[in-house]
């Protein structure tokens, strides 16, 4: 899932059905778990867990508004995080500090029942599920929520991973007429999915936001973002775009049907236009003891990093290494020569870029969009320096005899200073190649829609959260570098617009290939490595997030997938 920075989208990505690795354990109530050390600088920290008192308000400070609140038009982890509060899905990616998420049942009674040929998955809804207005949640509502996401002329950021595995290549959404025959709803509690090919990790796809129910009578298309109908423990009380969002309790949510969300606070108030430097200072000074942030890296400025060791701040700091990685996307439709893209990658001083992120405290350099926790992992084959140092001599040699652009553009989200500073590093790097890099500020709420549209710059930063322990490498490779659903052009979430008749054709064929999860994902990684040798993107940083919270905030953990404080369990003293 796209992690927008500061919204760190960001497309929920398929995650583990079974969590592997060591448990972080459970500490006594009121304690702070974890202790990053020289031997393990990326250990998780949870602030004052074990809290169970209901009531109070959590004040969420954010530098910009959400890209969208519509679960059917969201490929962003921030929306998925806040979405846990007001919508539910068939299954759910449940976070544990320092571990990949685990898929658990949510609206459904279990993780689904698969047919012997692997082509059909059947889910049964729990009893007593209701919307905020008291009306029942039905299987038809879940089907309709998925149908909406096929209308890609309307929902430009709709999740596509679930849609891609359904036997529905010609379906264009409910507004174009026709029925999505790949999904059956024989009764109000049963929903049946028909797949093109077996997909053993389908329960993870059922946790995607487009399995959230949407009653057809309440569908207002693009205006649905203003008030999605709540199926979760909270509902929208008021929403002043760009200023404030207020969530209050949903009186028709039944905790007996939902063991995954503690729903402790009475309300959540989101302030949507606070400068990141201000957020950082307010959290560090504890001027609002009920405050948290969803901004990337806890909205901390690089100059504030040293203060995390302060004895009054360290106990209020949640932290964790994420399954989220930042990359620089190179627009392959404007920088068409792979050798030129390769030279740009070699010229980049990624070590200096890491400094702009705040240094090693905020993440570690990586040479891959994938990580070794994913099924099918193979080490990367690209030749950028793993320590981040530029290779200018090799870059200049690649450009000999080439048509080199005199000017390129770098677009950045304007709410985050380090992304602008990243651009200044690239300016200096590319000047060595005789290229003038122009920096283009993009309003943060419109950042990813801009990258998906006609105004995509030559270079742009993006990120993805998908490094789950038993999650497939496909769930990173296919959305970010794969072809469209019909295989004829670049895919919907493919920001670099990469399309190669041979390699993209192999990915399209692999989507419809039978085999074991391990074998298929190894093939996806092999294709990824071949694609990356054409340099449609350059891996940067795998994120380690520290997020300071107010002194009255409890159960604060940084989600491995969300990259910020997990709203589903947080509480507050009052």
UniProtKB/TrEMBL annotation:
Keywords: Signal
Residues of the Solute-binding protein family domain: 102-471
Protein origin, superkingdom: Bacteria
Signal peptide range in chain numbering: 1-24
InterPro entries in the cross-refs: Peptide/Ni-bd, SBP_5, SBP_5_dom
Gene3D superfamilies (alphabetical): Dipeptide-binding Protein, Domain 3 (3.10.105.10), Periplasmic binding protein-like II (3.40.190.10)
Name assigned to this protein: ABC transporter substrate-binding protein
């Amino acid at each position: 899932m796209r992690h927008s920075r500061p919204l760190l989208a960001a497309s929920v990505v398929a995650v583990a059905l079974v969590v592997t690795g060591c448990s972080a354990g459970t500490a006594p109530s009121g304690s702070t778990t974890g202790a990053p050390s020289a031997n393990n600088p990326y250990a998780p920290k949870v602030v004052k867990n074990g809290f169970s008192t209901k009531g109070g308000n959590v004040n969420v400070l954010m530098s910009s508004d959400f890209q969208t609140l519509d679960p059917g038009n969201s490929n962003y982890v921030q929306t998925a995080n806040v979405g846990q509060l007001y919508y539910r899905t068939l299954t759910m990616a449940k976070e544990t500090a320092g571990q990949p998420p685990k898929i658990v049942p949510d609206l459904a009674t279990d993780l689904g029942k698969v047919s012997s040929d692997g082509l059909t998955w059947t889910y049964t809804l729990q009893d007593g599920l209701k919307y905020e207005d008291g009306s029942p949640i039905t299987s038809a509502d879940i089907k309709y929520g998925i149908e909406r996401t096929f209308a890609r002329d309307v929902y430009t950021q709709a999740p596509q991973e679930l849609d891609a595995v359904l036997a529905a290549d010609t379906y264009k959404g409910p507004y174009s007429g026709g029925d999505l025959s790949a999904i059956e709803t024989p009764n109000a509690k049963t929903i049946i999915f028909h797949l093109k090919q077996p997909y053993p990790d389908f329960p993870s796809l059922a946790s995607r936001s487009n399995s959230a129910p949407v009653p057809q009578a309440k569908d207002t298309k693009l205006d649905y973002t203003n008030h999605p109908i709540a199926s979760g423990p909270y509902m929208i009380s008021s929403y002043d775009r760009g200023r404030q969002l207020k969530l209050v309790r949903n009186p028709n949510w039944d905790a007996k049907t939902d063991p995954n969300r503690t729903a402790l606070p009475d309300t959540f108030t989101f302030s949507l236009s606070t400068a990141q430097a201000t957020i950082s200072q307010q959290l560090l000074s504890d001027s609002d003891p009920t405050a948290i942030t969803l901004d990337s890296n806890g909205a901390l400025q690089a100059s504030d990093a040293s203060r995390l060791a302060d004895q009054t701040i360290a106990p209020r700091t949640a932290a964790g290494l994420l399954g989220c990685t930042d990359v620089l996307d190179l627009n392959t439709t404007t920088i068409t020569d792979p050798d030129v893209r390769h030279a740009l990658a070699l010229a980049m001083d990624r070590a200096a870029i890491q400094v702009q992120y705040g240094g090693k405290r905020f993440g570690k350099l990586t040479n891959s969009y994938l990580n070794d926790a994913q099924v099918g992992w193979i080490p990367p084959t690209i030749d950028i320096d793993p320590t981040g140092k530029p290779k200018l001599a090799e870059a200049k040699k690649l450009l000999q005899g080439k048509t080199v652009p005199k000017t390129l553009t770098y677009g950045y989200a304007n709410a985050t200073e380090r992304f602008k500073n990243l651009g200044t590093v690239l300016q200096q790097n590319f000047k060595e190649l005789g290229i003038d890099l122009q920096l283009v500020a993009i309003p943060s709420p419109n950042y990813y829609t801009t990258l998906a549209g006609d105004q995509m710059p030559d270079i742009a930063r993006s990120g993805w959260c998908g490094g789950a322990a038993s999650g497939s490498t496909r769930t990173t490779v296919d959305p970010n570098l794969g072809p469209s659903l019909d295989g004829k052009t670049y895919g919907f979430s493919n920001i670099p617009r990469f399309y190669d008749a041979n390699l993209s054709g192999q990915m399209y064929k692999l989507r419809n290939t039978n085999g074991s999860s391990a074998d298929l994902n190894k093939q996806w990684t092999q294709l990824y490595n071949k694609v990356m040798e054409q340099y449609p993107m350059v891996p940067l940083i795998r994120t380690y997030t520290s997020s300071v919270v107010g002194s009255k905030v409890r159960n604060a953990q940084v989600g491995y997938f969300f990259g910020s404080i997990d709203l589903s369990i947080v509480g507050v003293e009052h």
